[in-house]
Amino acid sequence: MKIFFILGATGAFLSVALGAFGAHGLEGKIPQKYLETWQTGVQYQMFHSIGLIAAAFFLQHHPQAGQAVWAGWLMLIGILLFSGSLYLLSVTQIKVLGAITPLGGVSFLIAWLLLILAAVKYM
Description:
This protein has 123 residues and is an all-alpha fold. It has helices at residues 2-25, 32-61, 66-92, 101-122.
């Protein structure tokens, strides 16, 4: 699906921009612990933006693979929940936001599992 490629490339672009912002714009403004939290969000956003691009390529060759469609949407949801909650936690230091992060992690895990199942079925 074209949308997953576009979302993945956009997510990767934003990962680079947010990584630079964290390293240069937030340094000295938030505690080191939260800079590391920010960087974790950036890393997982990049990994799963690449995962979205992988889902797009898979679907280009296997458009009938519903598991790959679900995997793409779950990766996007995971980025929003996992990385988004870490970004918010870093800048606000509201610790309860950390409770959202595992929901994004579960979305990532299910997404990768679905891609594995799609590969077993269609490759």
